[in-house]
Every structure is written in C-alpha cells, then in structure tokens.
Design goal:
- The protein is mainly α and 222 residues long.
- It contains nine helices and no strands.
C-alpha cells in the first residue's frame, strides 16, 4: 500500500515539469493567437507572467545552491519549480480549452486547473523533493502569474475549440508524463549556481540546518 501511494505521487509530480508544461503552454498560446489575433496581447502577458515567475524561482534556487541563502527555521532552500509551473500554467490551459462553453464551465475548468496544481504541490512534499514552505511559495508565485493572466482574459473572444485540441492536449500531457526522460532542470540550475558563485559543491539542506552554508562560506574552487 505504501509503495503504491509513493508511485502515485511520483507519477503525479511529473505533471509539474517545465519540459511538459512549457511546450503545452506554447502550443495553446500559438493556437489562441492564430484563431483570435485580438487576444495576442493577453496571451503574451500570460507568457510574460510565467517567465517572470520562472526567473524569480530560479533566483531563489541559485541564491541557495550557490550562495547558501536560505531559511533553516522554515526549511526553505528555494521556491518549488514544479509547484510554480503547474499553478502558472494549468489553470490557464484549462480555461482556454473551454472558451466556447459558457462561464460556468470556464469557472469549473479553472478550478480544476488549480486543483491539479495543488496536487502537484502536495506531491513534491510526498516525494521528499521540497519542504512545505517551498511548495507554498512556489504555488503562490505561479498562482499569481495565472491569476493575472485570467483577470485580463475575462473578455476573451469566444473560440470554437476543436475536438482534436480538447482531447489531444490532455492526452499529450499524460503521455509525456509517462514517456518523457527525467527532467534536467535541477542539474542545469545547479551548474549555473556553481558557475556564478565559484563553489566547488552545491549547498545542501543538511548544511543549512547545521549552520555551515550561510553567507557563501563553502570552500571555493581553486
């Protein structure tokens, strides 16, 4: 039972990977501005909000991994990227899939998007990838990005969503969750952090709690 629960959360956590969500977001963005050119500004604003949230998340990770900037009391080592991306992208994807089906359906699908994002956030704690403070911070950061986009899309033109998009997008995401190679995002951020800080090794959560990782006092490269 415990093993099956672990596997469930391990599978679900992949829904928050940037390599899965960003292509989906770009595909829906392209379809939206193609079918409704007047929505280009709103759609571009959404991607800009996602990009800003991603930059903020990366900054917090680099700050800890490279310079030891974290909070031991909160067990905080940087915003959860999975929680951020899922909260920033999934609600908007769900909203765009039902633009032609009335306000009640739109609200229900947006709520579903946020519920899925919440599940991704919970999964990050369940698989021991992040602390509670990190997933809350990531979810709030991503949620703010999607909320800003959704607020600007209250008057989105009514579009006829073809069945191939309605069915194909969720199916593609599910297939990617099971078939995509392991995400390399954390490795990329780690290499960037070490390059910028000059550290030989990344700061770890254990060091943070032992007080030996603050102020970038790890051994520097020779």
């Amino acid at each position: 039972m415990l093993e099956s629960t672990w596997l469930f959360w391990l599978g679900f956590t992949r829904l928050g990977e940037a390599q899965i969500l960003l292509p989906a977001a770009l595909a829906v963005y392209g379809w939206t501005i193609w079918r409704a050119p007047a929505s280009r500004a709103c759609a571009s604003r959404w991607l800009m909000c996602v990009a800003l949230a991603a930059v903020l998340t990366t900054i917090t990770k680099v700050a800890f991994i490279g310079y030891g900037v974290g909070n031991a009391a909160l067990d905080f080592t940087g915003l959860s990227g999975h929680a951020m991306f899922s909260a920033a992208i999934l609600p908007v994807l769900m909203r765009l899939l039902v633009v032609d089906q009335g306000p009640a359906r739109v609200r229900a699908m947006v709520a579903l998007g946020y519920a899925l994002a919440l599940m991704v956030a919970v999964s990050r704690v369940k698989v021991d990838a992040h602390s509670v403070s990190e997933v809350i911070g990531g979810a709030l950061c991503g949620g703010a990005a999607s909320a800003l986009a959704l607020a600007s899309w209250q008057r989105l033109p009514v579009l006829r969503v073809p069945a191939r998009l309605w069915l194909g997008m969720p199916a593609a995401i599910v297939l990617a969750m099971h078939g995509a190679p392991p995400s390399q995002t954390h490795d990329w951020v780690t290499r960037l952090s070490l390059h910028l800080s000059g550290r030989a090794e990344p700061c770890t959560r254990e060091e943070l709690h032992q007080g030996g990782c603050r102020n970038g006092d790890a051994t520097q490269r020779s």
